[in-house]
Amino acid sequence: MSMHIESFFDEQTFTVSYVVSDSDSKICAVIDSVLDFDPASGRTSHNSADKVIEYVRREGLKLELILETHAHADHLSGGHYIQSVLGGKIAIGEHIADVQSIFRDVFNLEREFNIKGEQFDILFKEGDTFKIGTLNAKVMHTPGHTPACLTYLIEDAAFVGDTLFQPDYGSARADFPGGDARNLYRSMRKILSLPADTRIFTCHDYKAEGRDHFEWESTVRQQREKNIHVHDGVSEEEFVAMRTARDKTLDMPRLILPSIQVNIRAGELPPAEDNGTSYLKIPVDAL
Hints:
This protein is 24% helix and 23% strand. It is built from seven helices and 14 strands. The strands form three sheets. Strands 1-2-3-6-7-8 form a six-stranded mixed beta sheet, covered by helices on one side.
């Protein structure tokens, strides 16, 4: 197989971004990139995204696709910035329109804000297929964490976003607007019905208690045997009860409010106001 996967870990947001490349054609895709953001100052920077760009250039790769697994609530997407430097098309699931509809009202966005996903170049649906050079890829709709979550199955590797974490950490939360623990369980079981040797790459790792290093790769077999939330034998009702109770104890992600506003725009900041400055809103007592 001519696939190479390069990982980039941002410890500030515990996010893993990937460059998936075809060694034969030198064509690549970027998955779940990061735009650095300091909430105290409101400043953005490009250190994380520039590492990805430098790697693509150093390896002589051609970027064709910038893939988002969903509209993240814990980091801002670097997709728009990477596209401005390297080109490529930004893709996400078609149900991003559902997420946009929810958060347009939460943030009372500008009247012109489009809720049909047209900020993105490609809107994938369940079962769509595409190529990265000679590599075969398939889209799996895996909602639950958000309505729009996708898993990208590229050859023998599944990029699952936030749907699954490492076996010792479990599963994503399902209490964001539009999230659903029952859908999440079904999506995880859908992923775990893939062949046992399928490699699973997560978008985050939070270093589970007792583990002294970060990691983000496992297999379907390992998840089915050892995932603390959804290993074989855990029923849907058991999972929903656990997930619902656990979610009630969790704080909101530190960057959820700025992240969502940017990520539903494919990584672009809101349009500048009449003074030339973009603003991110903080809805008070709304979430």
